[in-house]
């Protein structure tokens, strides 16, 4: 997704969208105190977001809470008004499916609300520079064994079970056991889904 840049002001404009007023105000204060040349806008619901976009045009960054009252941040970021805006998700967790969806939607980044202030500020600076920023430990959330990763790698290369057996010196029953475990861990039902989900999470 190509993002448009704000060229009307030297100040970098950040829109924070969150329905928890205390967090909204706290994040605004933190950014204003520590980042130079920024102008903060705040919204707690969708209508306010639409009004701000209509009034101010494009922002340098939109920080969007994943869990809003009545809808998710993923619903909001797919609104036509936000189609060209640089958006990063704010979330209290790092569920693999949420990280995958953020990437699939082409969002700029994903920030864990639980991170410390300096990490948060550094991440926002990177996002303002146009860098894509996602949690670095995505690989570990599934806790795959080395052998499961071996099977997954060969699966991604299109090999049938018999070839995987030969390459890894395993019985066919053992390979099938590993595949069932992978399907269960990745919450998928087919070989193609398994490979695609693994790629989304940088497992292969």
Characterize the structure shown.
The structure is a single chain. The chain has 204 residues and is α/β, with parallel strands linked by helices. 47% of the residues lie in helices and 15% in strands. The protein has helices at residues 21-34, 46-56, 73-77, 96-104, 117-128, 146-156, 161-168, 172-186, 191-200, and strands at residues 12-17, 38-43, 61-65, 67-68, 71-72, 87-91, 109-112. Helix 1 (21-34) links the parallel strand 1 and strand 2. The two termini are 23 Å apart. The model has no long low-confidence stretch (mean pLDDT 88).
The shape, in one word, is elongated
- The figure for the number of domains is 2
Strand order of the largest sheet: 2-1-3-6-7
Estimate percent helicity. 40-55%
Terminal-residue CA separation: 23 Å
Q: How does the helix and strand content classify structurally? A: alpha/beta
Q: Report the CATH superfamily of the largest domain.
A: Response regulator
Low-confidence stretches: none
Could you give a short description of this structure?
This protein has helices at residues 21-34, 46-56, 73-77, 96-104, 117-128, 146-156, 161-168, 172-186, 191-200, and strands at residues 12-17, 38-43, 61-65, 67-68, 71-72, 87-91, 109-112. With 204 residues, it is an alpha/beta fold. It starts with 11 loop residues before the first strand and ends with a helix.
């Amino acid at each position: 997704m190509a993002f448009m840049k704000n060229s009307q002001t030297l100040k970098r404009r950040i829109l924070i969208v969150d329905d928890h007023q205390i967090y909204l105000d706290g994040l605004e204060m933190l950014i204003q105190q520590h980042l130079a040349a920024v102008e903060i806008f705040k919204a707690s619901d969708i209508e306010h977001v639409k009004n701000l976009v209509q009034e101010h045009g494009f922002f340098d960054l939109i920080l969007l809470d994943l869990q809003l009252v009545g809808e998710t941040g993923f619903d909001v970021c797919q609104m036509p008004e936000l189609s060209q805006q640089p958006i990063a998700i704010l979330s209290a967790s790092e569920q693999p499916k949420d990280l995958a969806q953020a990437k699939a939607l082409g969002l700029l980044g994903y920030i864990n609300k639980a991170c410390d202030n300096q990490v948060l500020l550094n991440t926002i600076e990177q996002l303002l520079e146009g860098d894509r920023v996602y949690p670095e430990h995505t690989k570990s959330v599934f806790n795959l064994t080395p052998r499961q990763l071996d099977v997954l790698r060969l699966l991604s290369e299109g090999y049938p079970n018999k070839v995987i057996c030969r390459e890894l010196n395993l019985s066919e029953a053992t390979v099938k056991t590993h595949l069932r475990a992978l399907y269960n861990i990745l919450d998928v039902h087919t070989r193609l889904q398994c490979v695609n989900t693994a790629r989304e999470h940088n497992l292969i």
